[in-house]
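Researcher: Please predict.
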Amino acid sequence: MDDRIEEHWRTWAEIDLGALRHNFEVARSHAGGADVIAVVKADAYGLGLERISRALGGRAAYFGVAALSEAQTISAALGEHRTDILLLGAILPDEMEVAIERGWHFMLSTLEELRAASSMAQRCGACAQVHLAVDTGMGRIGALESEFVELCQAASRDRFVRVQGLATHLPSADEDEDFTVRQLESFDALIGSALRCWADQEVAPKVHVLNSAGVFRHGEGIGGASALIRPGLMLYGIAPEGVFQDRLRPVVALKTRVRLVRFLPGGRGISYGRTYITERPTRVATLGIGYGDGYPRNLSGRGAEVLIHGRRCPLLGRVTMDQIMVDVTSLPEPVAPGDEVVVYGAQGSEEISSAEIAEKAGTIPWEILTRLTNRVCRVSTGCT
């Protein structure tokens, strides 16, 4: 690419790898030093899979992904510095062949999947590295609780399958504490029975259940050699619940630039549908970001703001594909094309969090990060 183009980013995300590593250690410390499955699916929550996996290589016990292509990207990025990779969702028989040949771990929920994995491993002349899932309330993958011990018994006897983990998922760890406590109690009792299937083996499967919200709320008693945790969102500096936010450091700041500044008289419509009409002479800045970059169109008319010169400036009218307009009338300093704009992140003493953006857009922080498009440049800061 022409260097002149690379030097003039239109919209970019600054990714603080030092903050990422800090949050990783926060997750471990909240779980008594347990080993970590770093959840990096969906392009590491939109921040760049290669970049994030390199930054956490040598720290994470596993990288958690959703697709074979993500596993391949990590393998290529890390080369000889290998970290185990776990495919977190259900896997198809033809995908099992690739996973077994590459030594990637994958989840199993049923006896049918177990038989398919065993048969494929036998044909490949290898051993399938698997984690057995039990559904304790998520309703997505996993054996029913009444069927889980039978699945464990069958897997423990299969010489072509090596069970590396036993797992479930918390659907409401940040919303329903009573349900989550009951779920964990039920899971613990079930795991006690399941682990007896490996009582005569030197190494038993590790147990993993806690996501980011679970780590914060229930991590204290989970540590030990047999435990793993699966943090995702918290690694990227966002707490699932605001009460825990001060324990994390923000990892990503989304920025753009002012592209045009104009004065509009009162009574002028702004953007599609003319949903906003100026009530007075207004100084309007046009910014180089829109829903084509992942900035939610749902922010239109919902009180969204950006930071310019360290001050909040309100969004005017509807978000368009490539541009948004903001009111800079109240800023004491002149605003000029090329000035830096913080969409979320800090500028001066002010900060707009991605959680604030999510709330105003009527969605969740997970979606705000993962919706960033390829047009947004990712730039690493901190130690690489």
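Model: Residues 17-236 form a domain with the TIM Barrel fold (CATH 3.20.20.10).
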